[in-house]
Structure formats: structure tokens, C-alpha cells
Amino acid sequence: MLDLKTIIIVDALPSIGALMMPNFDSKTIVYDNRYNEQLIGMSDENFEAMAAQMASGMVLNETKKEIIKD
User: Fold this and answer.
1) What gap in Å lies between CA 7 and CA 15, rounded to an integer?
2) Three-state DSSP class for 63?
3) How far apart are CA 53 and CA 19, in angstroms?
4) In a domain, 62, yes or no
5) Separation CA 9–CA 29 (nearest Å)
6) What is the domain range of residue 56?
7) What DSSP letter does each residue of 38-57 carry, written as one string?
8) 54 falls within a domain
9) Going residue by residue through the chain (70 aa), what tens digit of pLDDT does each one get?
10) Residue 29 to residues 12, 25, 32: CA-CA distances in angstroms?
11) Number of domains in the chain
């Protein structure tokens, strides 16, 4: 039996754009954009509220939402 102490997940889906966008080309993606600027400029309180909302859509188990948010 293998005894694992640590698991490192690099990224199960490194390019969601390739999955969701027809004719996806990573060279055309712009990271300096209004959406990212809004995320970076959020107050800690607004960012936490957004993270809580996103986490609530990722899990049905209420006890795990806080873990995902954090």
C-alpha cells in the first residue's frame, strides 16, 4: 500500500479557454484588461464576498464552502 503524505495538484485544466472557446489561440489572450483590473482593485471585503459566492456554486456540502472560499 502506498502511503501518501502530500499531494501537489499543478492544474487539472491549464487552459479552460481551449475547452470553452472555439478557435482558441493563447497568443491572443490579453491579461491586462478591465476585468482583471477590477479584481486587483477590490477591497478585501468585496473580494471575500465574491469568493464566498463563487464557492457556494462549487459544492453542495455546506461545511466545505468555507474551505473552498479560503
Assistant:
1) 21
2) helix
3) 24
4) yes
5) 24
6) 16-69
7) HHHH--HHHHHHHHHHHHHT
8) yes
9) 677 788 777 776 777 788 888 888 888 877 888 988 999 999 999 999 999 999 998 888 888 899 989 8
10) 20, 7, 9
11) 1
| Helix/strand/coil for 34 | helix
Contact 47, 38 (CB under 8 A): no
Per the domain annotation, does 34 fall within a domain?
yes
CB 53 within 8 A of CB 69: no
Locate cell 479557454: which residue? 17
pTM above 0.70, yes or no: no
Q: How many CB atoms lie within 10 A of CB 56?
A: 13
Q: 63: exposed, middle or buried (C-beta count within 10 Å: 0-12, 13-18, 19+)?
A: exposed
